[in-house]
């Protein structure tokens, strides 16, 4: 029996990027880093690895690893200034990911609820 569900098909590259974001945000410390980083590259608000390590109480290599995961997922960007690299949140990428998550997770959920007679709460 064919399903009436609409599915969103992604290219392999987009799907892998989408999954990388889930992996990156699946670590509580990375969520904390995302909370700390500014939403735009303003000099006074950005952090370098040393500053983030001090703020979070972590070693610099640990913070570097977390930033590498966030950058790999496309959620964080960096800017070199003087002798340091400063980090900020790429809000365009975050917005794109949230929109994709809503499309992928929202539609099937709404379809399932309407098919089973449940109402949205």
Layout of secondary structure:
Elements: H1 12-25, H2 28-36, H3 49-56, H4 60-72, E1 76-81, E2 84-89, H5 91-116
Antiparallel strand pairs: 1-2
Helix pairs in contact: 1-4, 3-4
Describe this structure in words.
The protein has one domain: Winged helix-like DNA-binding domain superfamily/Winged helix DNA-binding domain (Arc Repressor Mutant, subunit A, Orthogonal Bundle), CATH 1.10.10.10. It is 58% helix and 10% strand. It has five helices and two strands. The protein has a two-stranded antiparallel ribbon. Strand 1 (76-81) and strand 2 form a beta hairpin. Helix 1 (12-25) runs antiparallel to helix 4 and helix 3 crosses helix 4 (60-72). The two termini are 30 Å apart. Mean pLDDT is 80; it is low at 108-121.
């Amino acid at each position: 029996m064919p399903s009436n569900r609409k599915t969103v098909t992604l290219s392999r590259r987009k799907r892998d990027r989408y999954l990388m974001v889930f992996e990156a945000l699946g670590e509580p410390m990375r969520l904390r880093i995302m909370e700390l980083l500014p939403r735009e590259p303003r000099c006074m608000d950005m952090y370098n690895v040393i500053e983030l390590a001090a703020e979070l109480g972590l070693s610099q290599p640990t913070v570097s690893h977390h930033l590498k995961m966030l950058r790999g997922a496309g959620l964080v960007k960096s800017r070199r200034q003087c002798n340091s690299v400063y980090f900020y949140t790429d809000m365009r990428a975050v917005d794109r990911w949230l929109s994709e998550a809503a499309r992928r997770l929202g539609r099937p959920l709404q379809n399932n609820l309407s098919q089973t007679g449940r109402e949205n709460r």
